[in-house]
Amino acid sequence: MYKVLDLPASSYISSLGGMNISSQANEISMATQNPSLLTGEQHQKIGVNFSNYLSKSNFFSAMYGHQLSENDVIAGFIQYVSFGKFAHTTEENVYLGMLPVKDDVVMSVIYSRRLAEKFHAGVSMKPVMSFLADYQSFGVAVDVGANFYDRNIGFSGGVAFKNIGVQFKNYTSSRSAPLPFSIQLGMSQKLKHAPFCFSLTIHDLQRWNLNPNPAVKVNFADMLFRHTTWGIEFTPKGFYVALGYNRQRGAELSIKDIRSLAGFSAGLGFRVYKFNIGASISQYQKGIWAFQVSASTAVSSFLR
Fold first, then answer.
1. Which residues contact 104 (CB under 8 A, 6 or more apart)?
2. According to the model, what pLDDT value does residue 100 have?
3. Quick one: pLDDT band at residue 90, thresholds 50, 70, 90?
4. Which of 112, 126, 196, 210 could be joined to 38 by an S-S link, Cβ 3.0–4.6 Å?
């Protein structure tokens, strides 16, 4: 339930496979992946994002960060997801107009604190509302995360407990549905003498079996691989190019005997004036792509 909680909040995240809890890129959206990645570098930074998602669905998000003190940072985030509309008719097939298929709204308050020079911890609270035609649903999720970053060796490691929570109101019944809880570990390593960064995120550590189809047998190596998302970045000064591979998405959405790039994603970003601009593309199945564009800037840069 509420898979909307796992949508990438920026083209940067999408380009790395849609999942990364350790990257030290100066991207405010990374705090939606791991709240401990919110730092003072995101003070007065604004980020916006738009995605032309699957079929007729789209989503938009916006985020703002503010440093409260030397060690404390807070941010606000909101995301709106539209899954298109359908024709509303009576039993006699009398047309009554168009109704949304499904609309979701996610809001989040994120707090991060620096506990030591190289160690941060954070938490976020995420109320989520979902509207399915004339029915509504409501729930609350919480993320808790920690991050270790050693700038001297370019290593970052993180852990996150994501989507801890409950659905308070279901669409049509009092029975609540489980949220997409996930325990994740991640690491990113920058090369010392070359502008490259490699990332690995291990997800769903609380459960081994990620196979949605019991009729299909999955061997040990493939099941292990399905718990991983990989990313590589080329980061010379002023822009980046990123590639990612989400094995679980690739395994679930690939079609037998049909070659595709399901699970792969790519993106790039660059700085224009005082804005950071990014774009990404991800394939879900052959011929089915998701596109995402993002922009961010620091409000303080306009006040100098």
1. 2, 4, 79, 80, 81, 83, 128, 129, 130, 131
2. 61
3. low
4. 112
- 91 phi and psi angles, rounded to 5 deg: -65, -25
Please give the structure tokens belonging to residue 286.
């052959």
Six token digits for residue 5:
């909680």
Q: Give the angle 38-43-46 at the CA atoms, nearest 5°.
A: 90
* CA atoms within 13 A of residue 82's CA, in its CB half-sphere: 12
47 and 269 in contact (C-beta within 8 Å)? no
CA-based nearest residue to 116, from 74, 155, 146, 152: 146
Angle at CA of residue 71, ends 152 and 49, nearest 5° = 80
Q: Alpha carbon of 246 to those of 15, 112, 148, 281: distances in Å?
A: 10, 27, 24, 13
CB of 242 within 8 A of CB of 252?
no
Q: Would you state the structure tokens that stand for residue 250, as one six-digit string?
A: 């690739």
Reference 27, options 5, 15, 49, 42; nearest CA is 42
From its phi and psi, is residue 204 left (phi > 0), alpha (psi between -120 and 50) or beta? left
Q: How far apart are CA 50 and CA 172, in angstroms?
A: 31
Angle value at C-alpha 73, between 67 and 76, nearest 5 degrees:
95
Q: 160: which strand partners?
A: 145, 184
DSSP states of 249-299: HHHHH--TT----TTEEEEEEEEETTEEEEEEEEEEETTEEEEEEEEEEEG
Q: Which band of pLDDT confidence, cut at 50, 70 and 90, is reported for residue 165?
A: very high
Report how far residue 280's alpha carbon sits from residue 295's, in angstroms, rounded to the nearest whole number. 12
Beta-carbon-side half-sphere exposure of residue 167 (alpha carbons within 13 Å):
21
Lowest mean per-residue pLDDT among 14-18, 39-43, 57-61, 258-262? 258-262
Q: How many other CB atoms sit within 10 Å of the CB of residue 63?
A: 26
